[in-house]
Amino acid sequence: MASSDAQDLPVDDDSESDSNTVHNGSVISTVPDRHGFLGGTQYSTDAKQSISPNVMLRREQKWLHMFKHWEQFMEKNYKLVRDRCRKGIPSSVRPRAWLFLCGGKVVLDKSNNMFYNLKQQKGDARWIDDIKKDLHRQFPYHEMFVDQEGNGQKDLFEVLKAYSIRNKSVGYSQAQAPIAAFLLMHMPAEQAFWCLVSICDNYLVGYYSPGMETLQLDGDILFGLLKKVAPNVYKHLKKQKVDPILYMTEWFLCVFTRTLPWDSILRVWDMFLCEGVKIIFKVALILLKFSLGQTGVMKKCPTMYETLEVLRNPPQEIMEERFLVTQILRVNLTEEDFAREHKRQLVKRQAATALSAKKNRQQK
Q: What are phi and psi of 67, to 5 degrees?
């Protein structure tokens, strides 16, 4: 999962006033964008269209009120919380909102300094080596992680190490690193750790286990749902026998932190932490539908190779915040649709397993 940012970075030796040489020899901007990026594919020179200060202040006050009565809102007025997440959480309260939404606040309050105790432990050598190898690959052009000796990479190491010790059955997976780094951009290490715990253990259950059977099952569910959302794309992928695991792995494992523009990622995460994994499915369905479903695209994809190239590089316009959020809210899938497809795929897998076992017995 090495980052491709280094290949995308323009180098201009004549622009000393606007650039600077960093530890790895690459030349990047000395002025971070509004999200803290100094270069790479996520760097943006565009100023986000701002909501009026009065509207933003009202939204912030509403969230602060909800924090004071969180359990009551979640139990009796969840739809209001969901609607406010869909509108976009104000950046000033987003870190606290994410901590509350994912359940990290609950486990943090009960943790009795567990994170700091885990930091003191050495951890399993095999996971420690893997974590260290991956540190420099996580958003290398963000101001938090650009310095290999900086606090960003140190905190990232501690968060990932602590999780590998706490959950020995999973240990460490490469795909956890961008999620942990993403969280660290928004909150202190201890809070990021407990958010990571909640996400891995409650949202992405089984995704990081050996064999990734849960991810494969969700890939089949995604493909089944695609038949309803975009039947023409479904037929194209089925005809070419494109296994979902070939295009959806990074989307799901990293919750789009390595795929979408930054403003889009933030909005997706606002909804994901409130509504759960179905948001990942909806974003994936949108990328599939609008990447391959546009006029003439499938004709230009006569083989699996061209099809996968399109899916690995979705058109920029369909990933932009306004378009993507609008389409997420338009996806016509109910809770019953998700439950029905999940059950259908489980039955298919069980039948396939039973048939395979029967063949093995007959061969013996």
A: -60, -35
Q: Which amino acid is located at 336 in the chain? A: E
Q: How far apart are CA 303 and CA 315, in angstroms?
A: 19
Per the structure, the count of domains in the chain is 3
Query: pLDDT of 199-234, one tens digit each?
Result: 999 999 999 988 889 999 999 999 999 999 999 999
The owner of tokens 């298919």 is: 348
Instruction: Please report where in the chains the tokens 């070939």 appear, as a residue.
Output: 246
The count of other CB atoms within 10 Å of the CB of residue 273 is: 24
The 10s digit of each residue's pLDDT in 23-44 is: 443 446 778 888 999 888 888 8
Q: Concatenated DSSP letters for 296-340? A: TTGGG--SHHHHHHHHHS--HHHHSHHHHHHHHHH----HHHHHH
Does residue 49 sit within a domain? no
Tens digit of pLDDT for each residue in 316-346?
Answer: 999 999 999 999 999 999 999 999 999 999 9
Q: Report residue 332: phi and psi, to 5°.
A: -90, 70
Q: How far apart are the first and last CA of the chain?
A: 41
Q: Is 352 helix (H, G, I), strand (E, B) or coil?
A: helix
What does residue 27 show for φ and ψ, rounded to 5 degrees? -100, 125
Tell me if 266 is assigned to some domain: yes
Q: Which domain holds residue 83?
A: 62-88
The most distant pair of C-alpha atoms in the chain lies apart, rounded to whole Å, by: 75
Give CA angle at 295 (334, 313), nearest 5°. Answer: 75
